Amino acid sequence: MNSVIAQLKQHQLAIIGVIVALISTGVFMARSGLIDELTLKEAELNSRLRIINQNVKNSKNISDDVATLAGYVTEIEAHLFASDERSVNVDFFYSFEDRLDVHVSDVNQLKISGSGLGKDGPNELKIYSAINYDINVTADFQDIVEFLYEIHAADALMRVAGFQIDQAKHSVEKLSANIRVVVLAEKNKN
Known about the structure:
Elements: H1 2-10, H2 12-58, H3 62-78, H4 86-94, H5 96-99, E1 103-110, E2 128-139, H6 141-153, E3 158-167, E4 175-186
Antiparallel strand pairs: 1-2, 2-4, 3-4
């Protein structure tokens, strides 16, 4: 044992070096998990900083964009059907008889089911609502096509969702068309 102590006294510098190395290794191992965690946190923060800088760059003209969007909303609202004015809305479709050589025999306002625009549908409307109409028209083929075009070109925001053309019951020359139209309308207040 005395010889071991004598050896240790002779090599004090080497022993201190080994002790320092062991302590350094222990500290490094204890902190290595923290270093990885901090490296990940730094990368995440740098990513967020890049996104924030990009958002700042993209938001330079945001007040102009808001004003433009407000103008679009006003323009859209000028073309909406009033959902509570059912007779005015139905009369809109009957007014095509005055301009075209068609006979509108029936206009039915339907529930919104099946269009995908209703509550919980894939294209649910949050600001506006949609009204479905089932329209029966009797005319020759060319006039039915003109009627479809007039619906497409109308001032109101609407689209033909489907149609079916058959031979009219009481005429050989005329056709009967059943047309499904979806119209964008003001949101119901209730």
